[in-house]
């Protein structure tokens, strides 16, 4: 049975599968999943809770929080756009947003993905990856080979059950390097985060976008220290001094330049052939 606690309900007692809520003074019973922590539940239990959320039986926000983590095993990933290879590794995934991203197709009337996850560190164990190639003066993330790699190779490296839970979401993108008024939307299963999704408002002279054009800041990154990432060391942080990782936002500095996270308060840009970290994100 559930017991009301303020405006939130506490988890099902003893892992039970029957809950009760009060509605207009009347106790109403409904079935529900076993409630588990995001970190320790099995993949199948995680799937059941997400299914119940999309069916309206529970609200996932009552049980999981931004900042919750879960270690997932990633299979080895084949060469990407620059020929890098990522070895088999455990990766800590962190919830960066809850009901933040727009589903491409609504589920039972729900327009938002339940949770957005991102690699807490960037892919590691075999060196960092590079963002992609030079796309001339178009600078569209939609045409970026790294985007194809994310939606296929990276997603294919996730655990099988988790793969089945991944949702396609609409991602806003700056249309090119120089235009601060034009945006395009892509449909993605996995993606790089944008400059405003990490830092919020625009304060960098070589970036012409905005939250309106590339998405609102994820709550996880409102805490500036969370922007710092390092190379993954089988589920934990590495010891590299180079913590720079790629964003999907094009930079106005040049036609093949893209934005980078340098630290919690510093952004920069670089040409696409430069090797920097990759921290994929996806929604369940």
Can you tell me about this structure?
This protein has helices spanning 43-54, 145-157, 160-165, 195-199, 211-214, and strands at 4-5, 8-9, 18-23, 26-31, 69-74, 89-98, 102-107, 110-112, 115-119, 169-174, 183-188, 190-191, 245-250, 257-261, 267-271, 281-283. The model is unreliable at 1-20 and 130-136 (pLDDT under 50). The longest helix has 13 residues, at 145-157. It is 14% helix and 28% strand. The protein is globular, with a radius of gyration of 20 Å. It has a five-stranded antiparallel beta sheet with strand order 5-6-9-16-12. Strands 8-7-10-11 form a four-stranded antiparallel beta sheet. A hairpin with a 2-residue loop joins strand 1 and strand 2. It has five helices and 16 strands. The protein folds into two domains: 1-63, no CATH class; 65-283, no CATH class. It has 284 residues and is α+β, with helices and mostly antiparallel strands.
Largest sheet: 5 strands, antiparallel
Give the overall silhouette: globular
Helix content percent band? 10-25%
* Beta-strand residue percentage: 25-35%
State the end-to-end distance: 27 Å
Structural class: alpha+beta
- Overall mean pLDDT stands at 83
Question: Can you write the helix and strand succession as a string?
Answer: EEEEHEEEEEHHEEEHHEEEE
Radius of gyration equals 20 Å
Give the uncertain stretches in residue-range form: 1-20, 130-136
